[in-house]
Design goal:
The complex is a heterodimer of chains A (about 120) and B (about 120). Chain A has about 120 residues and is mostly beta strands. Helices cover about 0% and strands about 50% of the residues of chain A. Chain A contains no helices and twelve strands. In chain A, about 35% of the residues are buried. Chain B is an all-beta fold and about 120 residues long. In chain B, the strands form two sheets. In chain B, strands 2, 4, 5, 6, 9, 10 and 11 form a seven-stranded mixed beta sheet that branches. Chain B has a four-stranded antiparallel beta sheet with strand order 1-3-8-7, with no helix packed on it. The mean pLDDT of chain B is about 95. Classes of the chains: A mainly beta (about 120), B mainly beta (about 120). Chains A and B meet through strand 5 and strand 6 of A and strand 5, strand 9 and strand 10 of B.
Chain lengths: ~120, ~120
């Protein structure tokens, strides 16, 4: 069975500093994708970044980067130069990848609430 | 990215009435859409997978007769909460599988907050 664990219920960071949000996962599948979503207070889930299990390099997307350590089964999100608008709930998610045309559901972690202070 | 819209963004209804929520993909065709439910301060719970032109696949424990899903076109899926009761009050959010995105990433709508009095 697949499982996502986010052990930090809440995090605080000073504006303009970097912050790391932890995510560990458990799966026996060789091929999977890891996703991070941001959910501000408005409720919308915003896709941030994706990392494939076979990707050799860590994914980056603007101020977001994913610290992927496959052996440790961790996929931490790093936000550089935090902004006030980064205050939100952040969810790590995983999905088994199927190349035969099927599509497996996303498994979400419990989320981490990030508060950026001025 | 890909844009997914939801309507209404919030709805208040009386107990016993039915409520329909629409989920639309605006700039792409979505053969597969998903409906989630989220309680306050909790993670998303998948309710069902909606496939265009076929019956929805419901997750275990979700009453298919209470949460009717219709995916009649490649850009529209609807969730109808039938005979709503206060315990159905929740945040409902849909997503769509975007085939042009890496690993067919799901993009989400803005959500619908349902309050049943």
């Amino acid at each position: 069975a697949q499982k996502i664990t986010q052990t930090q219920p809440g995090m605080f960071v000073q504006e303009k500093e970097a912050v790391t949000l932890d995510c560990t996962y458990d799966t026996s599948d060789p091929s999977y994708g890891l996703f991070w979503y941001k959910q501000p207070s408005s409720g919308e889930m915003i896709f941030l970044i994706y990392q494939g299990s076979y990707d050799q390099q860590n994914a980056t997307e603007g101020r977001y980067s994913l610290n992927f350590q496959k052996a440790r089964k961790s996929a931490n999100l790093v936000i550089s130069a935090s902004q006030l608008g980064d205050s939100a709930m952040y969810f790590c998610a995983m999905r088994r990848l199927m190349f035969s045309g099927g599509y497996n559901k996303l498994i979400f972690g419990a989320g981490t609430r990030l508060a950026v202070h001025p | 990215g890909a844009v997914v819209s939801q309507h209404p963004s919030w709805v208040i209804c009386k107990s016993g009435t039915s409520v329909k929520i629409e989920c639309r993909s605006l700039d792409f065709q979505a053969t597969t859409m998903f409906w989630y439910r989220q309680f306050p301060k909790q993670s998303l719970m998948l309710m069902a997978t909606s496939n265009e032109g076929s019956k929805a696949t419901y997750e275990q424990g979700v009453e298919k007769d209470k949460f009717l899903i219709n995916h009649a076109s490649l850009t529209l899926s609807t969730l109808t909460v039938t005979s709503a009761h206060p315990e159905d009050s929740s945040f409902y959010i849909c997503s769509a599988r975007v085939k042009r995105a890496p690993a067919d990433t799901q993009y989400f709508g803005p959500g619908t907050r349902l309050t049943v009095l």
